[in-house]
UniProtKB/TrEMBL annotation:
InterPro entries membership: PsdUridine_synth_cat_dom_sf, PsdUridine_synth_RluA-like_CS, PsdUridine_synth_RsuA/RluA, RluA_PseudoU_synthase
Any single GO BP term: RNA processing
Signal sequence interval, chain numbering: none
Name used for this protein in its record: tRNA pseudouridine32 synthase / 23S rRNA pseudouridine746 synthase
PANTHER family, alphabetized: MITOCHONDRIAL RNA PSEUDOURIDINE SYNTHASE
PROSITE patterns: PSI_RLU
TM segment ranges: none
Domain Pseudouridine synthase RsuA/RluA-like: 77-208
Length: 267
């Protein structure tokens, strides 16, 4: 039986609805003992083939932000991931993910070497083959990649410093400098951040512990009139020939990415 027919029969959905979900990466089967996405509607499935369909109309109807390729080389590329776009897919699909968009744009498989939270906009490095993925991943693991962020945090932060606070039982260090403070649309401080470690939600958790949560953070900061004010705007790493690469997202485009902009020197 064709995959689309099997899933329609099992789910009670129309073939059109099933095809839409399959195109979004919400259908799964098992190959060689592991689950893989089932994308081809006309694929013939032998009797007894396990299949899963994670159908959610709300998920399928969500607008999908579009990633942009910032720089493309033979073994890797740097992409700008807008806020609201997953770095990689989940069981409900991968159409709304950077990884899938990059694969479609490049016409080839790509490998993640690091991630950004869904709510965070910024630069993500992708590898184009396994050798590149291994080499670039090691740089992240050995803390040889410099990652620069900008954030607006609630309240007035008078001076920069280092936040050294373990997260989930592991050392975590966040270095930051104060850029400026404004009084409206709410009292907040712009900070330039360099991560020395890469723990889950590290920046968001560290500044929340400091008493200055990132503005717009729905998990750690409460309500705010702005979306999450966190932007991964800079990456510095070595390519496969050991050449230093610096990639940045132009400040002129920060506002378009949802990062609050106001004339310098105005409080």
């Amino acid at each position: 039986m064709r995959a689309v027919d099997a899933l329609a029969q099992l789910s009670g959905l129309s073939r059109g609805a099933v095809k839409r979900a399959m195109n979004a990466g919400a259908a799964w089967t098992k190959e060689k003992g592991r689950r893989v996405r089932l994308r081809k509607a006309t694929r013939l499935l032998p009797a007894g083939t396990p299949v899963w369909l994670y159908y959610d109309e709300a998920v399928l109807s969500q607008p999908i932000p579009e990633a942009q390729c910032v720089r493309r080389e033979k073994g890797w590329s740097v992409w700008f991931k807008p806020a609201g776009l997953l770095t990689q897919g989940n069981q409900w699909g991968d159409a709304a993910s950077l990884l899938r968009q990059a694969e479609r744009a490049l016409g080839r498989p790509v490998w993640l070497v690091h991630r950004l939270d869904r709510e965070t906009a910024g630069l993500v490095l992708l590898a184009h083959h396994r050798q590149a993925a291994g080499a670039l991943s090691r740089q992240f693991q050995q803390r040889q990649v410099e990652k620069g962020y900008r954030a607006w945090v609630k309240g007035e932060v008078r001076e920069g410093g280092m936040i050294a606070l373990a997260l989930d039982g592991k050392p975590a260090r966040t270095r930051f400098e104060v850029v400026r403070t404004v009084a409206a649309p709410l009292p907040m401080t712009e900070v330039d951040i360099t991560l020395e470690t890469g723990r889950l939600h590290q920046i968001r958790r560290h500044f929340a512990e400091l008493g200055h949560p990132v503005v717009g953070d729905p998990r750690y900061g409460g309500a705010a009139p702005l979306p999450l004010q966190l932007l991964a705007y800079r990456l510095r790493f070595r390519d496969l020939s050991d050449k230093v690469i610096e990639a940045g997202w132009p400040r002129a485009q920060w506002a378009e990415a949802g990062f609050y902009q106001r004339e310098e020197g105005v409080a």
